[in-house]
Amino acid sequence: AQSVTQPDIHITVSEGASLELRCNYSYGATPYLFWYVQSPGQGLQLLLKYFSGDTLVQGIKGFEAEFKRSQSSFNLRKPSVHWSDAAEYFCAVGAAGRRALTFGSGTRLQVQP
Amino acid sequence: EPEVTQTPSHQVTQMGQEVILRCVPISNHLYFYWYRQILGQKVEFLVSFYNNEISEKSEIFDDQFSVERPDGSNFTLKIRSTKLEDSAMYFCASSESGMETQYFGPGTRLLVL
Asked: Which DSSP state fits B59?
């Protein structure tokens, strides 16, 4: 069965600073990988996804993520964080032949002025 | 942009009561899902639904739960006899195909007293 680990429960960065949120997955084959963002009281909004091809994927709101098979990682990055990026970020993995997404426990991002 | 909608946004019920959570998936999507997120915990998969039948379900989705697509637009989750531990945010999602991106609704927060 697949699993997802987000090692950082809570991260605080200053506005304008760069950001990297870590995600490690466990799955025997090539996974389908997603990053979702959840603002307080809101649903889950898709930031970006990786299915195949180019390992560096671009998403909305200036986010990008890189799939590294050798490290079983799919870290999310943003070069310059805005106050509106404060939210909870979830990494999720899907597997071929299965409908269920497996989510990580999330990383709460706080942005300092 | 099309989106998944859910009603109600909040529901409070007494233990042992039946609740029905409603979702309107994106109109051209064929796969539908329910997930839940207990406060402070991971988002967990409950069930997926395609062609008027359950295609996959988790261990959480026991006999107390059922899903239905009663008409061409709605997708419902019924909990027959709610327990305290059913208190959670319930998310509906839909996708065009089984391996495409799942788009999530804003959620229904269920509180069982």
From this structure: T
User: Between chains, do B107 and A90 touch, taking CB under 8 Å as contact?
Assistant: no
The SS3 call for residue A70 is helix
User: With 90 as the cut, is the pLDDT of residue B73 above it?
Assistant: no
Residues in chain B: 113
Q: Given an 8 Å threshold on Cβ–Cβ distance, is A90 in contact with B106?
A: no
Name chain A contacts of B104, Cβ cutoff 8 Å.
36, 43-46
Lowest mean pLDDT among A18-27, A38-47, A103-112, B47-56: A38-47
Name the residue of chain B whose CA is nearest to A38's CA: B106
Bridge partners of B91, per DSSP, are B35
- For residue B16, what are the CA distances in angstroms to A78, B79, B113? 46, 9, 9
Mark yes or no for CB contact B103/A46 under 8 Å: yes
Residue with tokens 């995600």: A23
In 3D, which of B42, B34, B10 has the Cα closest to residue B112? B10
